[in-house]
């Protein structure tokens, strides 16, 4: 059986966006996911992209690579200057969440991946960590989610301290690689994708609670 044709996402600049805006987009997409899903197709980037933003890490060594197959066939290969990244503890305190947004195209489309790594702790390495994955196609109102921590695994996770070493706010470079064994699906249809491999270096910020 021949392998599905692969289209590579263009490597170009991203537009900076605050974490609050990113979360608002995620909520908006989830709110619209009850409608009919867009037709299955491989993501084809437009000819031009928006102007570059500030990048992912101040050290300039952030990246994300992922192989996606299914209703969308695409290989992601993003470097620091092309992406926006953010991260910190998961809302329920059960691990670390790291997100990546790729190049913002002139028609408003971009791809965003959110990894929720269970049992990961600030500053500590880990192996074989169950991971929840959400893949958002912004501008297309498509969201794929594994909806559980048992479908993907971070094989190996490392953390390196970046920025100022003192104070209540601590930033880490989070390096991880892994894979998924089950697909992510949309909420209202049978459209599915599987991220068969991924590796990334992003950012996670931890801050002490104010007494």
Keywords:
about 210 residues; mainly beta; twelve-stranded mixed β-sheet; about 45% strand; disordered N terminus
Characterize this entry briefly.
The protein contains one helix and twelve strands; from the N terminus they run E-H-E-E-E-E-E-E-E-E-E-E-E.
Please describe what this structure looks like.
With 211 residues, the chain is mainly beta. The protein has one domain (12-33, 46-207). Helix content is 7%, strand content 45%. The chain has one helix and twelve strands. Strands 1, 2, 3, 4, 5, 6, 7, 8, 9, 10, 11 and 12 form a twelve-stranded mixed sheet that branches. β2 and β3 (74-79) form a beta hairpin. The longest helix has 14 residues, at 19-32.
* Overall pLDDT metric: 80
| Uncertain ranges | 1-52
Termini Cα gap:
61 Å
Q: DSSP helix count?
A: 1
Q: What is the percent of helical residues?
A: under 10%
Largest sheet descriptor: 12 strands, mixed
- Which outline best applies? globular
Tally of strands = 12
Rg calculated over all Cα atoms: 17 Å
Number of domains: 1
What percentage of the residues does DSSP assign to strands (E)? over 45%
Question: Which structural class is indicated by helix and strand composition?
Answer: mainly beta
Give the SSE string.
EHEEEEEEEEEEE
